[in-house]
Specification:
The chain contains 6 helices and 2 strands. It is mainly α and 153 residues long. The chain has a domain of 97 residues. Strands 1-2 form a two-stranded antiparallel ribbon. Helix 2 packs antiparallel against helix 3. The radius of gyration is 36 Å and the shape is elongated.
Length: 153
């Protein structure tokens, strides 16, 4: 996709949150990046804890007591890592909703533009028969036409 160049100042505004006054962070994240990261932390915790629990259930026959702690210790950072990797490709030209729509389109085989329903036109085949005399007269060569006009008058 070509890079979008616009002179619209408010659309180019990169709303960032650096943290509380006096204790700013050493990096700049947009509000969308913060939201995605904060949503991915619990997802990572549940995913890692679930993997450890399922593995323990298969191997030991019961859920290990430490599966929730592994989820907290490793799932939170894993969620942050996944969020940072996902948000790396998000920019002003390709916002998050564009990426999500593209992903849905690629995996769901759906188009962004809803096509109209297809119309099946069925035309009847013409019957084969002799042409009427008036049609033959109209299709005749101009020299033939003048001769046929003389014959009729």
């Amino acid at each position: 996709m070509p890079e979008l160049r616009t002179d619209d100042g408010p659309r180019k505004l990169r709303a960032v949150w650096l943290g509380p006054k006096g204790a700013t962070l050493p990096f700049e994240w947009t509000y969308v990046q913060w939201a995605v990261t904060l949503l991915m932390i619990p997802v990572g915790i549940v995913l890692i804890a679930g993997i450890i629990a399922a593995g323990g259930l298969l191997v030991l026959g019961h859920v290990p007591w430490f599966s929730w702690w592994f989820g907290l210790i490793y799932g939170g950072p894993a969620g942050v890592w996944v969020a940072v990797r996902l948000m790396r490709g998000v920019s002003f030209d390709e916002p998050l909703r564009f990426k999500i729509t593209t992903l849905r389109e690629e995996w769901g085989h759906q188009s962004r533009m809803r096509a109209e329903s297809t119309t099946r036109w069925q035309m009847p085949w013409p019957t084969v028969q002799e042409l009427p005399d008036t049609t033959i007269a109209l299709l005749a060569e101009p020299s033939d036409r003048s001769e046929s006009d003389e014959e009729t008058s």
